[in-house]
Amino acid sequence: MTRDTNVAINFAGNVFEGAHPIILLADTELLRKVLIKDFHLFTNRRRIEGINGPPLNHGLFSLQNDEWKRSRSNVSPTFTTSKLKDNRNDFIQIMVDQTETHNSHLENTDKVETPTKQYLALKDDEIIGQALIFFIAGFETTASLLSFFMYALAVNPHVQEKVFQEICSVCIDENGMNDISYEKIGQLHYLDAVINETLRMYPPVTRFDRESSVPCELGGYMLPTGTIITVPVYWLHHDPDVWENPEQFIPERFYSSEKLKRDPLYFVPFGIGPRSCVGMRFAIQTVKLAIVQCLYQFEICTCEKTTIPLKFEKALNIFPQDQVWLCVNKRSL
Ligand code: HEM
């Protein structure tokens, strides 16, 4: 579907996937309703054949309604600031620890509370399901962000130089010591803007969806139960009415003053609302650590084989049509 057609049917781009009609929703006010205000009506994603059996059926991605709520409240503490600060990326251990703490708490509390609290703790097969979905949802997406980031730096050397200078001034002391603590990483504001601009131009997940769980009204239309609303992430990130010169890599768009001028619904690489990506902060932290380690030692450049601009496959995730070639030079420190 072309951008022009989409603009014309901003609310209801009616598209068929196989025999199934879906609504491609690009109106940010209506998106706010679906993803945030009326979340209770659109809590679930559509069920995807192939990931409904065990153990993936226990993973956050495909759980529905109360089962999702219960798991999400158990899984969220895995990604708290203190766990990120300690670089604790053994998710299975964190979830097992939580369950053990929970169980010992149960043994020490009165029996009246027990049934509800037992209902809250994650069982072993659920922990396995969550761990597996973390791997599936987190591995390819994070790798994609890192790869496109390196590409963007190679084709925009002035941006790379600015990122490098910021890393040197924040993380490297006069003895050349590399301090990449949680606090230092948090001070790399330009790097943060460059990562966001990479996520805008090359969102690893180009769309996601919600399904209505009851008949409900949206933008003056009555939607039957089971209506699928698709959020066109790539499209929102490239809307020329919101992003001036959307095909240009301009990290300054993500300075705080610029962000205030935009509706946040135009930048949703991790989704938004109660069902947004649970691993977002972990992903950003991981990527920043990798970037600092890499850019401090190496410079990324284009070479004869580098394709500029990139061309993409038509897929759910973002894939370049051809292999992406870059050149890596060791810095003399
Ligand atoms: C750059 C990296 C990543 C991107 C761009 C990304 C993007 C997304 C998006 C777009 C969604 C759907 C949000 C929605 O429906 O509103 C999602 C969901 C999810 N992501 Fe990520 N993700 C990333 C990394 C990770 C990592 C590292 C993990 C785990 C360690 C993770 C775990 C999940 C899970 C479990 C869900 C489902 C959440 C739920 O239904 O409650 N993601 N992610």
From TrEMBL:
Pfam families: p450. Keywords: Heme, Iron, Membrane, Metal-binding, Monooxygenase, Oxidoreductase, Transmembrane, Transmembrane helix. InterPro entries: Cyt_P450 (IPR001128), Cyt_P450_CS (IPR017972), Cyt_P450_E_grp-IV (IPR002403), Cyt_P450_sf (IPR036396), Cytochrome_P450_3A (IPR050705). Heme binds at residue 277. One of its GO terms (molecular function) is oxidoreductase activity, acting on paired donors, with incorporation or reduction of molecular oxygen. Signal peptide: none annotated. Its cofactor is heme. Belongs to the cytochrome P450 family. This is Cytochrome P450.
